[in-house]
Amino acid sequence: MSNMKKSNRPDDTALKQQRMVAWQPILDPVWVAAAYLLIGVIFLPLGLTINAQSSDLVEMKIQYDGTPEDGVPYQNCSIAQPFASRSCQLIFTVEEDMEAPVLVHYEMGEFYQNHRKYVQSRDDYQLMGEDQDEFGEMFCAPLDKLTMNGVEQRLSPCGFVANTFFNDVFKLNSATYQMQEKGIAWKLDVDDRFKQPKDFRSEACSSCDDVACSCDSEEWSCTEPWRDDDGTCFLYFYPDDDTTWYLHETYSPVINPIEGVTNEHFIVWMRTAALPTFRKLYGYIEEDIPAGTTLTFDLTANYEVKSFVGQKKLILSTTNWLGGKNDYVGFFFFLVGIICLALGVLFGAKHYFDPRRLGDPKYLKVKEE
Prior knowledge:
- The protein has helices at 29-55, 116-120, 124-127, 134-140, 187-193, 247-250, 264-270, 327-353, and strands spanning 59-65, 86-93, 102-109, 145-148, 151-156, 169-172, 179-180, 201-204, 226-227, 233-237, 244-246, 278-285, 294-301, 311-317.
- By secondary structure, it is α+β, with helices and mostly antiparallel strands.
- The strands form four sheets. A five-stranded antiparallel sheet has the order 1-14-3-12-7. The protein has a three-stranded antiparallel sheet with strand order 2-13-6, with no helix packed on it.
- α1 (29-55) runs antiparallel to α8.
- The longest helix has 27 residues, at 29-55.
- The mean pLDDT is 92.
Protein backbone atom coordinates (compact mmCIF):
# COMPACT_ATOMS: atom_id res chain seq x y z
CA MET A 1 0.00 0.00 0.00
CA SER A 2 1.30 3.41 -0.91
CA ASN A 3 2.47 5.63 1.96
CA MET A 4 1.64 8.77 0.02
CA LYS A 5 -0.68 11.06 1.91
CA LYS A 6 -4.08 11.30 0.23
CA SER A 7 -5.56 14.74 -0.34
CA ASN A 8 -9.09 15.84 -1.10
CA ARG A 9 -7.84 19.09 -2.59
CA PRO A 10 -9.29 19.69 -6.08
CA ASP A 11 -6.99 20.07 -9.06
CA ASP A 12 -5.42 23.47 -9.55
CA THR A 13 -7.61 24.51 -12.46
CA ALA A 14 -9.76 27.57 -13.01
CA LEU A 15 -12.94 25.49 -13.01
CA LYS A 16 -12.27 23.45 -9.87
CA GLN A 17 -10.70 26.36 -7.96
CA GLN A 18 -13.56 28.72 -8.94
CA ARG A 19 -11.33 31.23 -10.73
CA MET A 20 -13.36 31.39 -13.92
CA VAL A 21 -14.36 34.77 -15.25
CA ALA A 22 -17.95 35.57 -14.30
CA TRP A 23 -20.38 38.30 -15.19
CA GLN A 24 -23.36 39.26 -13.09
CA PRO A 25 -25.64 41.89 -14.60
CA ILE A 26 -26.84 44.73 -12.44
CA LEU A 27 -30.50 45.35 -13.14
CA ASP A 28 -30.55 49.14 -13.09
CA PRO A 29 -33.80 50.95 -13.98
CA VAL A 30 -32.78 51.60 -17.61
CA TRP A 31 -32.12 47.92 -18.32
CA VAL A 32 -35.33 46.83 -16.58
CA ALA A 33 -37.49 49.31 -18.48
CA ALA A 34 -35.80 48.41 -21.77
CA ALA A 35 -36.31 44.66 -21.14
CA TYR A 36 -40.02 45.15 -20.45
CA LEU A 37 -40.42 47.29 -23.55
CA LEU A 38 -38.59 44.73 -25.70
CA ILE A 39 -40.77 41.86 -24.44
CA GLY A 40 -43.88 43.94 -25.06
CA VAL A 41 -42.79 44.87 -28.60
CA ILE A 42 -42.22 41.18 -29.40
CA PHE A 43 -45.24 39.65 -27.65
CA LEU A 44 -47.88 42.18 -28.75
CA PRO A 45 -47.62 41.64 -32.54
CA LEU A 46 -46.96 37.94 -31.99
CA GLY A 47 -50.22 37.64 -30.07
CA LEU A 48 -52.12 39.50 -32.79
CA THR A 49 -50.58 37.23 -35.46
CA ILE A 50 -51.44 34.04 -33.58
CA ASN A 51 -54.98 35.25 -32.98
CA ALA A 52 -55.40 36.10 -36.68
CA GLN A 53 -54.08 32.67 -37.68
CA SER A 54 -56.46 30.97 -35.25
CA SER A 55 -59.40 33.03 -36.52
CA ASP A 56 -58.74 31.77 -40.06
CA LEU A 57 -59.29 28.17 -38.96
CA VAL A 58 -62.69 26.56 -39.28
CA GLU A 59 -64.11 24.44 -36.48
CA MET A 60 -67.49 22.77 -36.09
CA LYS A 61 -68.66 20.62 -33.22
CA ILE A 62 -71.71 18.59 -32.30
CA GLN A 63 -72.44 17.31 -28.81
CA TYR A 64 -74.30 14.02 -28.80
CA ASP A 65 -74.27 12.88 -25.17
CA GLY A 66 -74.24 14.46 -21.71
CA THR A 67 -75.62 17.72 -20.35
CA PRO A 68 -76.07 20.14 -23.30
CA GLU A 69 -73.50 22.92 -23.44
CA ASP A 70 -74.56 26.48 -24.27
CA GLY A 71 -73.77 27.47 -27.84
CA VAL A 72 -72.96 23.94 -29.01
CA PRO A 73 -75.38 22.14 -31.38
CA TYR A 74 -76.85 19.05 -29.74
CA GLN A 75 -77.92 15.89 -31.58
CA ASN A 76 -79.03 13.36 -29.02
CA CYS A 77 -77.44 9.93 -29.10
CA SER A 78 -77.13 9.32 -25.37
CA ILE A 79 -76.94 5.89 -23.79
CA ALA A 80 -77.46 4.73 -20.21
CA GLN A 81 -75.44 1.49 -20.34
CA PRO A 82 -72.01 0.70 -21.78
CA PHE A 83 -71.74 -1.31 -25.00
CA ALA A 84 -75.26 -0.23 -25.95
CA SER A 85 -74.45 -0.15 -29.70
CA ARG A 86 -77.00 2.60 -30.31
CA SER A 87 -76.97 3.72 -33.95
CA CYS A 88 -77.34 7.42 -34.79
CA GLN A 89 -76.31 9.93 -37.42
CA LEU A 90 -74.45 13.19 -36.79
CA ILE A 91 -74.98 15.70 -39.59
CA PHE A 92 -72.62 18.64 -40.20
CA THR A 93 -73.43 21.47 -42.63
CA VAL A 94 -70.15 23.12 -43.63
CA GLU A 95 -70.57 26.91 -43.48
CA GLU A 96 -67.04 27.88 -44.60
CA ASP A 97 -64.55 26.32 -47.00
CA MET A 98 -62.38 23.79 -45.19
CA GLU A 99 -58.88 23.14 -46.54
CA ALA A 100 -57.36 19.69 -46.24
CA PRO A 101 -56.45 18.04 -44.03
CA VAL A 102 -59.74 18.25 -42.14
CA LEU A 103 -59.24 16.68 -38.72
CA VAL A 104 -61.89 14.62 -36.97
CA HIS A 105 -61.64 14.62 -33.16
CA TYR A 106 -63.83 13.31 -30.40
CA GLU A 107 -64.01 15.35 -27.22
CA MET A 108 -64.62 14.08 -23.70
CA GLY A 109 -65.76 16.29 -20.85
CA GLU A 110 -65.44 15.70 -17.09
CA PHE A 111 -63.18 12.67 -17.60
CA TYR A 112 -60.09 12.92 -15.38
CA GLN A 113 -57.39 11.04 -17.26
CA ASN A 114 -54.90 13.12 -15.26
CA HIS A 115 -55.75 11.47 -11.92
CA ARG A 116 -52.56 10.03 -10.41
CA LYS A 117 -53.98 6.56 -9.82
CA TYR A 118 -55.44 6.46 -13.31
CA VAL A 119 -52.19 7.54 -15.01
CA GLN A 120 -50.15 4.94 -13.12
CA SER A 121 -52.61 2.10 -13.76
CA ARG A 122 -50.88 0.51 -16.76
CA ASP A 123 -48.09 -1.92 -17.56
CA ASP A 124 -45.93 -0.54 -20.36
CA TYR A 125 -43.85 -3.72 -20.59
CA GLN A 126 -47.00 -5.76 -21.10
CA LEU A 127 -48.11 -3.32 -23.82
CA MET A 128 -44.77 -3.97 -25.57
CA GLY A 129 -45.52 -7.70 -25.68
CA GLU A 130 -43.46 -8.70 -22.64
CA ASP A 131 -44.63 -11.04 -19.89
CA GLN A 132 -46.21 -9.32 -16.92
CA ASP A 133 -44.28 -9.32 -13.64
CA GLU A 134 -45.34 -8.58 -10.07
CA PHE A 135 -44.63 -4.87 -10.47
CA GLY A 136 -46.94 -4.68 -13.47
CA GLU A 137 -49.67 -6.41 -11.49
CA MET A 138 -49.12 -3.99 -8.61
CA PHE A 139 -49.50 -0.90 -10.83
CA CYS A 140 -52.59 -2.31 -12.57
CA ALA A 141 -54.44 -3.53 -9.48
CA PRO A 142 -57.36 -3.90 -9.09
CA LEU A 143 -57.79 -4.22 -12.87
CA ASP A 144 -55.08 -6.84 -13.34
CA LYS A 145 -57.44 -9.83 -13.15
CA LEU A 146 -61.03 -10.53 -14.11
CA THR A 147 -63.42 -13.28 -13.04
CA MET A 148 -65.46 -14.67 -15.96
CA ASN A 149 -68.00 -17.45 -15.31
CA GLY A 150 -66.29 -18.27 -12.04
CA VAL A 151 -62.85 -18.51 -13.67
CA GLU A 152 -60.15 -15.96 -12.84
CA GLN A 153 -58.40 -14.60 -15.92
CA ARG A 154 -55.49 -12.23 -16.32
CA LEU A 155 -56.24 -8.99 -18.18
CA SER A 156 -54.02 -8.17 -21.15
CA PRO A 157 -53.58 -5.26 -21.27
CA CYS A 158 -54.33 -4.47 -17.64
CA GLY A 159 -55.06 -1.23 -15.81
CA PHE A 160 -57.57 1.60 -15.80
CA VAL A 161 -56.29 3.37 -18.92
CA ALA A 162 -56.53 0.36 -21.23
CA ASN A 163 -59.83 -0.85 -19.83
CA THR A 164 -61.65 2.48 -20.16
CA PHE A 165 -60.94 2.70 -23.89
CA PHE A 166 -63.25 5.04 -25.83
CA ASN A 167 -65.17 2.68 -28.11
CA ASP A 168 -67.72 4.85 -29.89
CA VAL A 169 -67.43 4.26 -33.64
CA PHE A 170 -67.67 6.97 -36.31
CA LYS A 171 -68.00 6.21 -40.03
CA LEU A 172 -68.18 8.96 -42.65
CA ASN A 173 -71.20 8.22 -44.84
CA SER A 174 -70.14 9.85 -48.11
CA ALA A 175 -69.44 8.82 -51.69
CA THR A 176 -67.19 11.87 -52.19
CA TYR A 177 -65.04 11.97 -49.08
CA GLN A 178 -63.20 9.31 -47.10
CA MET A 179 -62.04 9.48 -43.49
CA GLN A 180 -58.59 8.00 -42.96
CA GLU A 181 -58.01 6.27 -39.63
CA LYS A 182 -54.37 5.22 -40.14
CA GLY A 183 -51.50 7.52 -39.26
CA ILE A 184 -53.30 9.16 -36.31
CA ALA A 185 -50.91 7.90 -33.60
CA TRP A 186 -47.31 8.87 -32.90
CA LYS A 187 -44.83 6.91 -35.02
CA LEU A 188 -42.75 6.14 -31.91
CA ASP A 189 -45.75 4.55 -30.23
CA VAL A 190 -46.74 2.53 -33.30
CA ASP A 191 -43.21 1.26 -33.99
CA ASP A 192 -41.86 0.64 -30.50
CA ARG A 193 -44.30 0.99 -27.61
CA PHE A 194 -47.25 -1.22 -28.57
CA LYS A 195 -46.79 -4.81 -29.71
CA GLN A 196 -48.81 -8.01 -29.67
CA PRO A 197 -47.87 -10.69 -27.06
CA LYS A 198 -44.60 -12.54 -27.61
CA ASP A 199 -45.96 -15.74 -29.10
CA PHE A 200 -48.86 -14.19 -30.99
CA ARG A 201 -49.08 -15.19 -34.64
CA SER A 202 -51.58 -14.85 -37.44
CA GLU A 203 -51.97 -16.12 -40.97
CA ALA A 204 -54.11 -14.99 -43.88
CA CYS A 205 -56.17 -17.67 -45.58
CA SER A 206 -55.99 -18.03 -49.36
CA SER A 207 -59.77 -18.31 -49.31
CA CYS A 208 -62.36 -18.14 -46.56
CA ASP A 209 -63.98 -21.24 -48.06
CA ASP A 210 -60.75 -23.21 -48.02
CA VAL A 211 -60.87 -26.31 -45.81
CA ALA A 212 -57.50 -25.31 -44.36
CA CYS A 213 -58.99 -21.99 -43.18
CA SER A 214 -60.20 -23.51 -39.91
CA CYS A 215 -59.50 -22.89 -36.23
CA ASP A 216 -59.98 -26.58 -35.35
CA SER A 217 -56.23 -27.18 -35.22
CA GLU A 218 -54.44 -26.78 -31.88
CA GLU A 219 -52.07 -24.51 -33.76
CA TRP A 220 -54.66 -21.72 -33.47
CA SER A 221 -56.53 -20.30 -30.46
CA CYS A 222 -59.37 -18.73 -32.46
CA THR A 223 -62.87 -20.20 -32.44
CA GLU A 224 -63.52 -19.03 -36.00
CA PRO A 225 -61.46 -17.11 -38.60
CA TRP A 226 -61.62 -13.35 -38.44
CA ARG A 227 -62.72 -11.61 -41.67
CA ASP A 228 -61.54 -8.06 -42.50
CA ASP A 229 -63.38 -5.42 -44.54
CA ASP A 230 -61.78 -6.69 -47.75
CA GLY A 231 -63.15 -10.18 -47.20
CA THR A 232 -59.80 -11.77 -46.25
CA CYS A 233 -59.95 -14.36 -43.48
CA PHE A 234 -57.26 -14.71 -40.81
CA LEU A 235 -56.33 -17.45 -38.38
CA TYR A 236 -54.62 -16.36 -35.18
CA PHE A 237 -53.05 -17.66 -31.99
CA TYR A 238 -52.90 -15.93 -28.61
CA PRO A 239 -50.74 -17.51 -25.88
CA ASP A 240 -52.47 -18.63 -22.67
CA ASP A 241 -55.83 -17.85 -24.23
CA ASP A 242 -57.65 -19.99 -21.66
CA THR A 243 -56.34 -17.95 -18.72
CA THR A 244 -56.01 -14.50 -20.30
CA TRP A 245 -58.68 -12.02 -21.36
CA TYR A 246 -57.37 -10.00 -24.30
CA LEU A 247 -58.28 -6.54 -25.56
CA HIS A 248 -60.19 -7.72 -28.65
CA GLU A 249 -62.44 -9.85 -26.45
CA THR A 250 -63.53 -6.78 -24.45
CA TYR A 251 -63.83 -4.32 -27.32
CA SER A 252 -64.93 -6.46 -30.25
CA PRO A 253 -65.59 -5.44 -33.01
CA VAL A 254 -63.88 -2.06 -32.44
CA ILE A 255 -60.57 -3.86 -31.78
CA ASN A 256 -59.98 -6.83 -34.04
CA PRO A 257 -57.85 -9.81 -32.94
CA ILE A 258 -55.18 -9.26 -35.60
CA GLU A 259 -54.38 -5.69 -34.51
CA GLY A 260 -55.02 -6.01 -30.76
CA VAL A 261 -53.04 -3.36 -28.86
CA THR A 262 -51.51 -2.06 -32.11
CA ASN A 263 -54.87 -0.53 -33.09
CA GLU A 264 -54.17 3.18 -33.57
CA HIS A 265 -57.38 4.35 -31.87
CA PHE A 266 -56.28 2.42 -28.79
CA ILE A 267 -52.75 3.86 -28.99
CA VAL A 268 -54.14 7.41 -29.19
CA TRP A 269 -56.32 6.74 -26.13
CA MET A 270 -53.34 5.46 -24.13
CA ARG A 271 -51.68 8.88 -24.26
CA THR A 272 -53.45 10.34 -21.24
CA ALA A 273 -54.69 13.93 -21.29
CA ALA A 274 -53.64 16.67 -18.86
CA LEU A 275 -57.07 18.24 -18.46
CA PRO A 276 -60.53 16.82 -17.70
CA THR A 277 -61.87 18.13 -21.03
CA PHE A 278 -59.76 16.85 -23.89
CA ARG A 279 -59.78 15.94 -27.57
CA LYS A 280 -58.27 12.96 -29.28
CA LEU A 281 -57.74 12.48 -33.00
CA TYR A 282 -60.06 9.92 -34.59
CA GLY A 283 -59.29 10.44 -38.27
CA TYR A 284 -58.76 12.97 -41.04
CA ILE A 285 -60.16 13.85 -44.47
CA GLU A 286 -57.57 14.53 -47.17
CA GLU A 287 -59.84 16.49 -49.54
CA ASP A 288 -60.90 20.14 -49.41
CA ILE A 289 -64.52 20.56 -48.36
CA PRO A 290 -66.41 23.53 -49.89
CA ALA A 291 -68.98 25.57 -48.00
CA GLY A 292 -72.50 24.21 -48.21
CA THR A 293 -71.41 20.57 -48.08
CA THR A 294 -73.35 18.23 -45.81
CA LEU A 295 -71.31 15.56 -44.03
CA THR A 296 -73.05 12.67 -42.33
CA PHE A 297 -71.31 10.48 -39.77
CA ASP A 298 -72.80 7.13 -38.81
CA LEU A 299 -72.31 6.77 -35.08
CA THR A 300 -72.40 3.61 -32.98
CA ALA A 301 -72.57 4.77 -29.36
CA ASN A 302 -70.95 2.35 -26.89
CA TYR A 303 -69.24 4.61 -24.35
CA GLU A 304 -71.45 5.52 -21.40
CA VAL A 305 -70.84 8.89 -19.70
CA LYS A 306 -74.05 9.32 -17.71
CA SER A 307 -72.59 7.71 -14.57
CA PHE A 308 -69.93 10.45 -14.18
CA VAL A 309 -71.94 13.32 -15.75
CA GLY A 310 -69.59 13.49 -18.71
CA GLN A 311 -69.98 14.85 -22.22
CA LYS A 312 -69.16 13.58 -25.70
CA LYS A 313 -68.70 15.67 -28.84
CA LEU A 314 -67.56 15.14 -32.41
CA ILE A 315 -65.43 17.93 -33.90
CA LEU A 316 -64.35 18.82 -37.43
CA SER A 317 -61.53 21.35 -37.77
CA THR A 318 -58.85 22.62 -40.11
CA THR A 319 -55.25 23.12 -39.05
CA ASN A 320 -52.19 25.27 -39.80
CA TRP A 321 -48.60 25.70 -38.62
CA LEU A 322 -49.85 26.53 -35.11
CA GLY A 323 -52.01 23.40 -34.85
CA GLY A 324 -55.75 23.51 -34.21
CA LYS A 325 -58.00 26.45 -33.38
CA ASN A 326 -57.04 28.00 -30.05
CA ASP A 327 -57.94 31.59 -29.18
CA TYR A 328 -56.35 31.45 -25.73
CA VAL A 329 -52.70 31.29 -26.90
CA GLY A 330 -52.93 34.49 -28.93
CA PHE A 331 -54.81 36.24 -26.12
CA PHE A 332 -52.11 35.18 -23.63
CA PHE A 333 -49.29 36.62 -25.77
CA PHE A 334 -51.30 39.80 -26.37
CA LEU A 335 -52.03 40.24 -22.64
CA VAL A 336 -48.38 39.68 -21.63
CA GLY A 337 -47.28 42.16 -24.31
CA ILE A 338 -49.68 44.85 -23.04
CA ILE A 339 -48.61 44.33 -19.41
CA CYS A 340 -44.89 44.45 -20.29
CA LEU A 341 -45.31 47.60 -22.39
CA ALA A 342 -47.21 49.26 -19.56
CA LEU A 343 -44.54 48.31 -17.00
CA GLY A 344 -41.75 49.44 -19.33
CA VAL A 345 -43.37 52.85 -19.83
CA LEU A 346 -44.11 53.16 -16.11
CA PHE A 347 -40.56 52.32 -14.97
CA GLY A 348 -39.05 54.48 -17.74
CA ALA A 349 -41.17 57.49 -16.76
CA LYS A 350 -40.33 57.00 -13.09
CA HIS A 351 -36.60 56.94 -13.86
CA TYR A 352 -36.83 59.93 -16.21
CA PHE A 353 -38.74 62.24 -13.87
CA ASP A 354 -37.36 60.99 -10.57
CA PRO A 355 -34.01 59.29 -11.25
CA ARG A 356 -32.01 57.46 -8.64
CA ARG A 357 -28.23 57.28 -9.11
CA LEU A 358 -26.94 53.76 -8.76
CA GLY A 359 -24.86 53.28 -5.60
CA ASP A 360 -25.72 56.70 -4.17
CA PRO A 361 -24.41 56.67 -0.52
CA LYS A 362 -27.30 58.82 0.67
CA TYR A 363 -29.48 55.70 0.64
CA LEU A 364 -27.17 53.88 3.05
CA LYS A 365 -28.44 53.54 6.59
CA VAL A 366 -25.89 53.34 9.38
CA LYS A 367 -27.03 51.70 12.54
CA GLU A 368 -26.31 53.91 15.51
CA GLU A 369 -24.84 52.44 18.68
